[in-house]
């Protein structure tokens, strides 16, 4: 097996995507997994001045980065989306994003336990 070189990662693999059905609206959205850089950025943006993560802000950034169709351009767009969506719809989208990022079925089960439908 060859060793990885920095030049080898110029074309990273495509991020996993998934269509999430939103039955309440009879529509769907497309979500994708995130890169490590995305997750680090989201964690940093979601911290308050004391270094504690604001879970609601973290969720909003996940939606902003992970939902690709329709694409939301700003936190203002996410906030507008939140005013129209139920908690169940938001959780379905978040589960889809997490499933695109999860490595194992156990990881996916743990995530699904956190967001019960």
Spell out the key features of this protein.
117 residues; three-stranded antiparallel beta sheet; alpha+beta; 49% helix; single chain
Write the layout of secondary structure elements.
Blueprint (H helix, E strand, L loop, with lengths): L16 E6 L4 E6 L3 H10 L9 H12 E3 L5 H10 L2 H15 L3 H10 L3
Antiparallel strand pairs: 1-2, 2-3
Task: Describe what this molecule looks like in 3D.
By secondary structure, this protein is of the alpha+beta class. It has helices spanning 36-45, 55-66, 75-84, 87-101, 105-114, and strands at 17-22, 27-32, 67-69. It has a three-stranded antiparallel beta sheet. Strand 1 and strand 2 (27-32) form a beta hairpin. Helix 1 runs antiparallel to helix 2 (55-66) and helix 2 packs across helix 4 (87-101). The longest helix is centred in the last third of the chain and has 15 residues, at 87-101. The protein starts with 16 loop residues before the first strand and ends with a helix.
Overall shape: it is: globular
How would you write the strand order of the largest sheet?
Answer: 1-2-3
The tally of strands reads: 3
Give the N-terminus to C-terminus distance in angstroms: 44 Å
Q: Which structural category do the helix and sheet elements fall into?
A: alpha+beta
Largest sheet: 3 strands, antiparallel
H and E string: EEHHEHHH
Tell me the number of helical segments per DSSP (H or I, 4 or more residues long).
5
Tell me the fraction of residues in β-strands, as a range: 5-15%
Oligomer: single chain
- Can you tell me the residue ranges where pLDDT is under 50 for at least 5 consecutive residues? none
Mean pLDDT: 87
How much helical structure, as a percent, in the residues? 40-55%
Please tell me how large the radius of gyration is. Answer: 16 Å
